[in-house]
Design brief:
By secondary structure, the protein is an all-alpha fold. The chain folds into 2 domains: 14-53; 56-142, Flagellar motor switch protein FliG, alpha-alpha superhelical domain (Annexin V, domain 1, Orthogonal Bundle). It is built from 8 helices and no strands. Helix 5 crosses helix 8 (117-141). The protein is globular, with a radius of gyration of 19 Å. The N and C termini lie far apart (50 Å).
Length: 142
């Protein structure tokens, strides 16, 4: 079968990326409803999209107890690196939630300069977001 001109325009549309962007913009209830409905049809896809739709600013929405639970499985250096470039208000909140010793270690990393800082920061944030996604999946399932 020969493709017609409309089919062969050379435009690539990444549907998953577009859905992730939409999920990031949606409110919590809308996002939960969409993921729940998608999970009925394709659970692995729903889990993937949910995990990718979580951003670092979603940490603002979590309660202190939840954040403490999440940070208990994260090394202080990772949190410190992840907080580089994050707004000061969120940095302060997250560092006051953890123990003083933990916060000091995280702050030390946060204050130092590194050669490949952008890459390390992104990696650290992604690591935290993986754990946040697992935590949120568990809390939604209960």
């Amino acid at each position: 079968m020969k493709p017609n001109k409309e089919q062969n325009t050379g435009i690539f549309i990444n549907g998953k990326a577009q859905i992730v962007e939409m999920l990031q913009i949606m409110g919590d209830e809308e996002r939960a409803t969409l993921i729940k409905n998608l999970k009925l049809r394709n659970a692995p896809l729903a889990d993937e999209l949910f995990a990718k739709s979580i951003s670092f600013r979603d940490l603002k929405k979590l309660e202190d107890e939840a954040l403490n639970s999440i940070f208990s499985s994260i090394q202080p250096a990772i949190l410190g690196m992840a907080l580089k470039g994050v707004d000061a208000k969120l940095q302060k909140r997250l560092l006051t939630i953890v123990s003083r010793d933990y916060a000091e270690k995280a702050y030390e990393v946060m204050s130092n300069l590194y050669n490949n800082e952008k890459e390390l920061t992104k990696k650290a944030q992604n690591k935290i977001l993986e754990i946040v996604a697992r935590y949120l999946r568990r809390s939604v399932a209960n």
